[in-house]
Amino acid sequence: MAFEVTGSLEALVAAMSELAELEARQDDFDAADYRASREEKCVLSNWAKFSTEAAQSGNVREKQRLDLAKEIREKIKEYREHTRPTNPPSSRALQAFRNKFHNLDASKEGFPTLGGRSATLYDEKNDLVSLSKPSEEDRLTAFMRHAFPWLFVICVVIINIIFTFVLLFGAIYHLYKTKSNGTKLGLIAFYTVLFSICVGLVTNAKRSEVFGACAAYAAVLVVFVSGNISSGNSSNG
User: Does the record's keyword annotation contain Nucleus (predicted)?
Assistant: First the structure.
């Protein structure tokens, strides 16, 4: 599956580059036709006359134009087959991609990854599509995310603090108030499972890191419970 996706992307990029070259050839023809006579312009503006002229053996230029038009038509059809399930890119995604494409860096001057006519492939936003469907956001959320990204960072920090407080202090307080040793062991298992779920969901930790964190968390709770049990037994004795 990875090979098929990669091949599709390579074919899409190749089709874009080929279209850019074909459009450049079309622009050259258009520039020459702009200086053509009125009779020649009438032929070009009438497809029936143009195709008839191109079919004649002596009209090499019209034959070239007709072949180019057919080639562009086939290439556009191929290009649309690759971009059928796509959507327009968001402004932030497009800006990030352009920075990557032009190799923009604060320490050096940027340069396009592709050369020739392909260097301007991504200059027009309306001609671009996104390979993945962007998440739909309302205008206020999009504005806040773009203008005040630090607010989202603060929200993430606050959520992490809340999770940390609940999983550490909440577990210790719950174990402290529980008298039954069997219930305490059940609470240790419950909070350990809850801790592993939270770590797996809100962090990018690997499996080994999640396992190590859960082991350390369970060890802290076991040490607290064993110390509490020992102090309770000594006081009873």
Answer: no
